[in-house]
């Protein structure tokens, strides 16, 4: 049943597939981001309570979604790597981590910018903000661990386990605003009921979320290509590829 | 699935579950410390001594805000619709501070049972709508 997936376990095949995926996803990603950004920052009506300032939600909320979504992807890859020992999965985690770290930083940073004028403070140690900060540190911890262990096999295994340990934090981030009293408001769209946002405002937000997820896939595809070349540098097909490229560009 | 892989998967599931259970226990034990503030009703159940710095959260009671005429002193009540707590504060209020909207105040209980705030934060909710929609909803509610 899963036969068709087996070939993507090969770094060589994944290298070329990743290149194709990048080319297919780049334009849709840009379109969604453009619609979301222009719609959210320019065309959507102001909020009745927070005025024009609420527009930062179009950056803040999608960044936070991405920070958690990328971590989930890393966790799934970690399970695939640890159970089936597929090297491409470990490379996918390495390719994803810095992107996730940037998005979680962006979520914290835009959150602080939003918090100062609306709440009256940049930061408060409430459950949501603290657990989101821990997510940022988990990303940094992964990157540090990965670069600290020079033995690839040991490093991949140890850092995959670290990723799985951090998974506990994901439900905590999501439910923090429900389980505890927090200054941060409850979920607006990531809930089972209808979104707590007027329909005239919500579509650019969806556009940003879809656009950023596609953007993540694009960048991760590019990064995993580098990762594959770095790790498979001694294999025959990479040497052939380099020779072919050098001939084409007359180097 | 090959037995060795099945075993690895089981170990991973067990690890994540055990860790989740442990974290759940820790969070449950630390419940009181994780809450960013008490509601006025929760405050009554707590043994808070005067002078201890805490945060109180709730709604600014409608009609309770009284500004002083010659200073930045302001008095209002924080309510969770069961209990009310009178609060005094000296300073600039956040822009979103309104009657009937959320607020989180940090400060100390005075010996008279009133709350002396050193910081006032506005807590907005998760609802977003254009001003016209908000006006319509307010009208519908008034009817």
Set out the fold topology.
The complex is a heterodimer of chains A (251) and B (143).
Chain A: H1 3-6, H2 11-43, H3 57-84, H4 87-118, H5 127-148, H6 152-166, H7 169-179, H8 199-231, H9 236-248
Helix pairs in contact in A: 2-8, 3-4, 3-5, 3-6, 3-8, 4-5, 4-8, 5-6, 5-7
Chain B: H1 3-29, H2 31-34, H3 40-45, E1 53-60, E2 66-67, E3 73-79, E4 84-90, E5 102-109, E6 115-123, H4 131-142
Parallel strand pairs in B: 4-6
Antiparallel strand pairs in B: 1-3, 1-5, 2-3, 3-4, 5-6
How would you characterize this protein structure?
- By secondary structure, chain A is mainly alpha-helical.
- Chain A has one domain.
- Helices cover 76% and strands 0% of the residues of chain A.
- Chain A has nine helices and no strands.
- In chain A, helix 4 runs antiparallel to helix 5 and helix 5 runs antiparallel to helix 7.
- Chain A is globular and about 60 Å long.
- The mean pLDDT of chain A is 94.
- Chain B has 143 residues and is of the alpha+beta class.
- Chain B has two domains: 34 residues; 103 residues, OB fold (Dihydrolipoamide Acetyltransferase, E2P) (Beta Barrel).
- Chain B has four helices and six strands; from the N terminus they run H-H-H-E-E-E-E-E-E-H.
- Chain B has a five-stranded mixed β-barrel.
- The model of chain B has no long low-confidence stretch (mean pLDDT 91).
- Chains A and B meet through helix 3 and helix 6 of A and helix 1, strand 6 and helix 4 of B.
